[in-house]
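Closing statement on the iron/sulfur cluster sub-project.
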Amino acid sequence: MIKGPVLIPVLGDQVSPGLSSLAGKDPADCVVLMMEVMDETTHVRHHQAKIVLILAAMRHFADDLRRAGWHVDYVALDDPANTGSFAGEVSRALQRHGAREIRVTEPGEWRVRQMIDGWAAALHVPVDVLPDTRFVCPLPDFFAWAAGRRELRMEWFYRDMRRKTGLLMEGDKPAGGRWNFDAENRSGPAPGLAPPPPLTFAPDTMTQDVMALVRARFGNHFGRLDGFGWPVTRAEADRLMDHFIATRLHEFGMWQDAMLAGHDTMFHALIAPALNLGLLDPIDVCRRVEAAWRDGRAPLAAAEGFIRQVIGWREYIRGMYWLDMPGLAEANALNATRPLPDFWWTGDTPMRCIAQTVRATRDNAYAHHIQRLMIMGNFALIAGLHPREVAAWFLAVYADAYEWVELPNVAGMALHADGGRLASKPYAASGAYIDRMSDYCGACRYKVKVKTGPEACPFNALYWHFIDRNTDRLARNPRMANPYATWRRMSAEKRAETLASAEAFLATLGAG
Ligand code: DLZ
Ligand code: SF4
């Protein structure tokens, strides 16, 4: 009997030549299947630029694979026979090629994993699902680390990853004598601070074709395509990384949390979209940053801050996702039920911090971590927006967002919907924090120093409303002792006035 080839589906965020499903295989014995499918572009209504990024990276990668000798069967979105789903396309491809087995690298989403786990039975073919070796910490290692621990704190995991990789290590000691330089990485913007312009990449004809397709098919999705400049190839992603090290890394740590109106990228690396697609390798980018520190091109605090995000937070978040799914998608420990206000999509609100962040998000499919966590996330937390709606928004609008990274950050870190598994206290803050870390408040129609009434910054009364309505759940948390003590010290009149002010604002948000 003649045996068909091995079918290797490569998903949109798997555009890496070292992918485990390709490793060690003879191209002559395999068909690589890449699929542009409506189910994935509309599962949440992804930002137009995110769809362009993913489809353009897929098309460029298909060419790379062909040049390397692989037979790539590429199903374009506008192929008339396209069924619109991974399962439909895998089934068609099995028939087309008479494939004898499927070999696939584990996907980044629980939803897709469920689909793949159903293929063997539905398609009557063996399916080999391989670990995604692009991550530094294999999932079984993460589960072993988590087993039996009462608290799964990132800091301990991060130290293990430093030891495992040897990054910023001097023997068995952390470089500079400390594991974490975060305390030096928290400055508000200095007067006159001028972040460098970001490096962008002009779309080539292949990417322009995808832009035309996305405009025609998804022109009603959130987001703009004008000025699209994300890297869509490994060569471009490498240049972006070099540019970050040359122009931004030395200041990155200090201004990591700062926000300036009109400066949408500050000193951030902007590599997350490329990293999460597989255009960059996490260990490689960390080694490049470590080398910059060792050659005196960057301070240790900046290098450590970057490396902590990549081998610490990013890997920890991915482990927590697979540990806590599927329950995490439904978690709502604080019983937040309010629907997402329209201004999350339009940016049409007098709250300047939110208007700036939504505008940046619409223009670039990007906002930096403090805009995400402390403006949008914090607002959602203290206004009590429903975690499912907030998570769907974050997943749709950011170019780097895949559920494995988005959901633990949103449900766990930002919304405390996991009841504190990820973060020991909720990241709730009033306007004072935003004022300290940004230049947004000066020109805002609200007054950040006013606590109640129609002129007051809404974050102020909402913060206390959040504290008050969650007393039963949070007051016993030792890390919340200060806010609860302050709240109790306020006069009964002040408390009532504050709650009424918050209620008046919440009433403007509509049902909930
Ligand atoms: C996010 C996304 C989009 C928008 N489109 C596609 C696509 O057309 N084809 C594809 O293979 N993957 C796409 N993706 C990424 C998948 O949704 C991704 O593989 C899962 O989110 C799992 O991480
Ligand atoms: Fe945001 Fe309040 Fe500052 Fe306005 S005053 S920008 S609403 S924090």
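Residues 300-324 form the longest helix (25 residues). With this model delivered, the sub-project is considered complete and its resources will be redirected to Aim 3.
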